[in-house]
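#struct-help
A.M.: can someone run this one for me? Single chain, 130 residues.
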Amino acid sequence: MEKENVFYATGKRKSGIAKTWLKPGSGNITVNNKPVDIYFSAYAKQVLMEPLELTKNTDVYDINVKVLGGGVVGQAGAIRHGITKALIQADPDLRSVLKKAGFITRDPRIKERKKYGQKGARARFQFSKR
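D.P.: on it. Structure tokens below:
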């Protein structure tokens, strides 16, 4: 594998972390050594394909992803973020298009922690006056 033609980026969303490698190829996408169609549903696949479709690079790069943590939506968002960052490394001219679509910014929303003396982050135990 040639090092100068491989672009690496890390994407994050919620609790999901995606290590993404882009290399010139025919558009094959593997997630945790499985084809993307087997690993994800149609909606999650659509989410992670958005930066490739926007920049018209669906058949230009082979993408290999190692993703861990989080659920399906968080992992798909993390992969989308990783693909976006790797595409910018491959072609810096794509930055303005991806920035306008909002793919470069990391989504900072994470689960709020549970507070002591409460049922959850915001939910309280039922109050009884008598």
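A.M.: thanks! The longest helix spans residues 72-90.
D.P.: also worth noting: Strands lie at 7-13, 16-24, 29-31, 34-35, 61-68.
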